[in-house]
Structures are given as structure tokens and as C-alpha cells.
Amino acid sequence: MTEAPPAPLHIEIDGRPVADPETLAALTSGYGHFTAMQVRGGRVQGLGLHLDRLDRATHELFGRGLDGTRVRALLVAALEAAGRRDAAARVYVHEGIRTVVTVREPFTADPAPQSLKSVGYQRPAAHIKHLGGFGQRFHGDAARRAGFDDALLTAPDGEIAEGAITNIAFWDGTSVIWPSAPCLTGITMSLLEARLPSARRRVTLADLPDLRAAFVTNARGVAPVRRIDDVTFEVDETLMARVDAALAATPWDALEPGAEG
Fold first, then answer.
1. How is residue 177 annotated by DSSP?
2. From CA 154, how far away is CA 161, in angstroms rounded?
3. CA-based nearest residue to 207, from 157, 257, 135, 144
4. pTM score, two decimals?
């Protein structure tokens, strides 16, 4: 006996049928990954790292890769359609290898020192910049209601992993220490790790009083950390100038092939 084909998916939003329900279902499934970047003059710092991240995660989640040349073309087309050369752009990859590009006004880094509230939470599959950041948003909002700027994610034993939407680094007077707990290796983190004296090692909340300074990084840039829970840090202006200089010296890669010069 032959099974009948499944009925077509029907979705309505505010009482109106969706023209392409299969695509909408994929985009709202919560299963996928993305990368976020700042674009200046049609160029991106660490473009190759962004493309590698997308390709690796697509392989891991969906069993095949993602062509970087196509991603670049989609980004260029989206920037042109938005009439922008400077932007904050994201590339999302959903089930069925549906690729979505978003473009909005560029973000500028907020250099104000940050205060972080530690929470016992770690992202699943932390090495992937995946969708479904409910836990991060939940804990980040709770931290802000408690008077902090964001959350710091830790293991049950107090091992520090990452910020809710950032990587965190510490300064011991000699090296920049990146926590070795499972986390997303951010693009800005990768660029700085290659340009500063760096080490990865286990860092716990109990270690904080012995560390001299801290800062956070993400696609928007870097910011010093002034407090984690009840532990305060002096903002090391010399360190932050060195970090800023390392990031400023990082080349900007052209999105359009042939425009690298």
C-alpha cells in the first residue's frame, strides 16, 4: 500500500497565508548558525575567518559545505540593495542550506568599562555560533536588571567560559589569558590572539583577585571590564591601547573578488 504524500505545509501570519511556508518554517526552526561582521567601505576584518566559520558549521550541522564565493556575492548584493558601504551584516544558514543576509546601520564599539554578573550556564555546542540564544538573552537581561551590563557564563564549579555575547580575556601582567573552557572562538578574539602575547588556560571565579585586568571582545570591538560580581579591576589604559592598536592594524579584506588591492 502506497503512502499518500504529506499535505503541503500551511502557515498564516496575522490571518494571512505565507507565500513560501517551507522557507519560513526553515527560517523559524531555530536550527542553524550565523556569523556577524562589521563592514567598512565594502571590507571586513578577518573575512576568511568568517567564511571558514560558516563552512565548518554548515558541514557539521547539515553535512555539506558552504561556498565562500557565493557568500561574498550575497553580501555584496545585499549591501548594494541597501545602498550601504558601511554596515553591520550577518549571514545566517538554516536547514536546507538556506542562506539569509541581513544588513543594517554599522555599530560602533562602546568603550565604556563593563560590569559582568556570573551565571551558571554554558551554551550547548559552544564552538558553533548557533541560533536559539534564549539562555544567553535570559541571563543577559537578568544581569542588566541586577545593575550589571551583561552576564558571564560559567560552569557549575565556577570555571569561566565566555560572556553572553562576548569573549572575555584577562591580563596577568605578561600575557593575555583566554579561558580554555568550551566557548565560541570569536573572530575578534582570533584576530587579537594572533597579534598579542596570548595563552589559553583554565580560569575560575576564584582566580579573579589574582588577575590584573580584563576585557571583552565581539564583532563590535573591545571594551575593558571594571567588575565581575564583587571583584573590581582597574582599567589598564596601556593594555587597552595595545589591544586597540592590534585590532586597528588588522587588514580589512574586500568582499568583492578582485578588489583586494
1. E
2. 5
3. 157
4. 0.93
